[in-house]
Amino acid sequence: MGVGAARDDASVLAALRPYVVGDCLVAFDAPLVVANRTGQRPAEAALNRDFRQFEAGAYPANTEKPEFADVPRAARLARQLALDMDPLSSATRRAIEVYPHPATVALFRLPRALKYKAKPGRSVDLLKSELLRLMDGVEGLAQAGVRMQVAGQPDWVSLRRQVTVAQRKSDLRAAEDPIDAVVCAYVALYAQRRPADVTIYGDFTTGYIVTPSLPTDFRTAPDAGRRARARR
Questions:
Q1: Distance between CA 232 and CA 215 in Å, rounded?
Q2: Which of 10, 13, 150, 193 has the greatest count of CB atoms below 10 A from its CB?
Q3: Residue 176 and residue 5: Cα distance in Å, rounded?
Q4: Domain total in the chain
Q5: By residue range, what is the domain housing residue 91?
Q6: Maximum distance among all alpha carbons in the chain?
Q7: Is residue 232 part of a domain?
Q8: Please, which pLDDT band fits residue 23 given cuts at 50, 70 and 90?
Q9: Pairing assessment for the beta strands 207-212 and 198-203 based on DSSP bridges
Q10: What tens digit of pLDDT does each residue of 156-204 get?
Q11: Dihedrals phi, psi of 173, to nearest 5 degrees
């Protein structure tokens, strides 16, 4: 397993290409399809209905936002890699949009999304403890029905050490995206192995988000739905 971070398109593509030589499913934590001029996509509205109570709602994406006014960056990268972005496609080289917060809520049966994103009022200690909880959950996937082994992998060991010794929010922020990327990769694996157990919110025409389905017997804590948190 390789875990890392890259910023510009060329660096992202260079990092990905060794892993997408043949058949593949690449998960993007960013919109692939944005067709609405204002407001939120139908996908976000539908996902929020299910996950707002877990404080795992999604920010709206629309073409009035500069980053989505033309081709979304994730779609541009997917096209460069010749990936089919239709979530219902049977192609052997595909891309899907995913979102870590609802995925972790569903996979780990969390009463609330973990608060590891830096926001006003959140201390370094809180962010660190929540990020370590996320890492514990990811490591626990080694015993899940769809298995992924990260413990002991050099890049993962380095990330855990980085989080454990962090003293500043910036130190944690540097580890946050690579950890999210591992969650996204697992969602792709889960969707490939257990397609009946994922929910596709939205569609290829208006935009979509793929996430593991909420367990039918799972409900949030009584006070968890008072305020929704949003992504990205």
A1: 25
A2: 150
A3: 10
A4: 1
A5: 10-212
A6: 47
A7: no
A8: very high
A9: antiparallel
A10: 999 999 999 999 999 999 999 999 999 999 999 999 999 999 999 999 9
A11: -60, -35
